[in-house]
């Protein structure tokens, strides 16, 4: 199966004619002036064909996997999937693994999260929720640990909406972090392990954009998977909202993982407009710089991308809102590092403030 998929992707790679349309959509290229998507495709070709480790192998890891290049490619080349293939070849062919990637894989293996945190994922949960339900709320590692305040808001909002759900005390990493390292074999082991847990439920709601797209694209789940923003939007009429933000300006950052591949863009905007915030848009749909393993592999480059995005946001508003935990954590780090004074909030925190 791997050889068949690899062959199909490599055939797609040959469609690239170096038109360079993709490079201006790439946040890494805009910061570094190199490592454009078409250059990454060349690196994949070299990785697959070379008998010795090619010098340009690192190119496939300098990618946030935001999929802006896929969206802009005139030949409709699945560039991000080909980059993933190149990473997998690096692992399989030469055993390439950054030290921080190795640490994360070890943490997930030992503690079921990439941070090596040995505490329960739910130490912050004070709300009572059913022990059993047909619907599982899968929070994800970021929301379970460093962004637990986001988890609190999500749980309270779902309870206000009278959504029946439970959270598994056995929740573990979905495998997305591992997949990004190129170690698809270890990621598949996590997929198999999690799938056994998910078989107990009729529906899965996830709060993490990374988990959502990974479930959709790499798990063979014969049950509905929804992002919590979809659930909230579908039930928004049940909430009585005040108007605490009348006249306040905000700018919204889409999550690459639910916007581009899954088209979820209107739901968050509709919800924010109901809170009476004045919503301003970015000039272009760039990523925050955190994902695709960039924070793990090269934090400085990732933060430079975040800085670029924050400076544009600051020109338009003093409040930046997103629903992606990767974006929130990364923007806060970049704001602190580069002393960019802008409030960074998650959408669910904002919505909770508006509920009467």
CA gyration radius, whole angstroms: 20 Å
CATH structural fold name of the largest domain = Rossmann fold
Mean pLDDT score: 95
Estimate nothing, just give the exact number of structural domains.
3
Structural classification: alpha/beta
Biggest pleated sheet: 4 strands, parallel
Second CATH tier, the architecture of the largest domain:
3-Layer(aba) Sandwich
CATH domain class of the largest domain = Alpha Beta
Percent range of helical residues: 40-55%
Description of the structure:
The model has no long low-confidence stretch (mean pLDDT 95). This protein has 356 residues and is α/β, with parallel strands linked by helices. The strands form two sheets. The protein has a four-stranded parallel sheet with strand order 5-4-6-7, sandwiched between helices. The protein has a three-stranded parallel sheet with strand order 1-2-3. Strand 2, helix 11 and strand 3 form a beta-alpha-beta unit. It is built from 18 helices and seven strands. It is globular and about 65 Å long. The chain has three domains: 93 residues, Fumarate Reductase Iron-sulfur Protein, Chain B, domain 2 (Orthogonal Bundle); 129 residues, Rossmann fold (3-Layer(aba) Sandwich); 115 residues, Rossmann fold (3-Layer(aba) Sandwich), CATH 3.40.50.11810.
């Amino acid at each position: 199966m791997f050889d068949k998929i690899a062959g199909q992707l490599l055939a797609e790679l040959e469609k690239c004619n170096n038109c360079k349309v993709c490079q201006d959509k790439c946040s890494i290229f805009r910061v570094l002036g190199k490592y454009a998507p078409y250059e990454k495709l060349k690196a994949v070709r070299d990785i697959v064909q070379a008998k010795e480790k090619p010098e340009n192998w690192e190119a496939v890891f300098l990618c946030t996997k935001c999929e802006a290049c896929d969206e802009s490619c005139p030949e409709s080349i699945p560039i991000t999937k080909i980059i993933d293939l190149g990473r997998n070849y690096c692992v399989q062919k030469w055993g390439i693994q950054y030290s921080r990637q190795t640490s994360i894989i070890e943490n997930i293996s030992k503690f079921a999260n990439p941070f090596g945190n040995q505490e329960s994922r739910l130490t912050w949960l004070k709300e009572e929720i059913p022990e059993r339900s047909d619907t599982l709320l899968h929070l994800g590692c970021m929301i379970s640990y460093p962004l637990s305040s986001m988890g609190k808001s999500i749980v309270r909002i779902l309870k206000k909406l009278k959504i029946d759900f439970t959270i598994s005390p056995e929740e573990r990493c979905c495998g997305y972090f591992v997949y990004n390292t190129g170690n698809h074999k270890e990621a598949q082991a996590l997929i198999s392990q999690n799938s056994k847990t998910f078989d107990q439920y009729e529906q899965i709601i996830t709060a993490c954009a990374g988990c959502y797209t990974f479930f959709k694209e790499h798990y063979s789940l014969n049950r509905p998977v929804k992002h919590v923003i979809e659930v909230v939007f579908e039930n928004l009429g049940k909430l009585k909202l005040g108007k605490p933000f009348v006249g306040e300006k905000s700018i919204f950052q889409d999550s690459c993982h639910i916007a581009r591949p899954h088209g979820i863009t209107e739901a968050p905007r509709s919800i924010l407009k109901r809170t009476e915030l004045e919503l301003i848009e970015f000039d272009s749909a760039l990523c925050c710089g955190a994902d695709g393993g960039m924070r793990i592999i090269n934090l400085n480059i990732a933060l430079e991308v975040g800085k670029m995005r924050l400076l544009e946001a600051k020109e338009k508003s003093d409040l930046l809102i997103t629903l992606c935990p990767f974006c929130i954590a990364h923007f806060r780090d970049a704001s602190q590092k580069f002393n960019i004074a802008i409030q960074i909030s998650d959408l669910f925190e904002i919505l909770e403030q508006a509920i009467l």
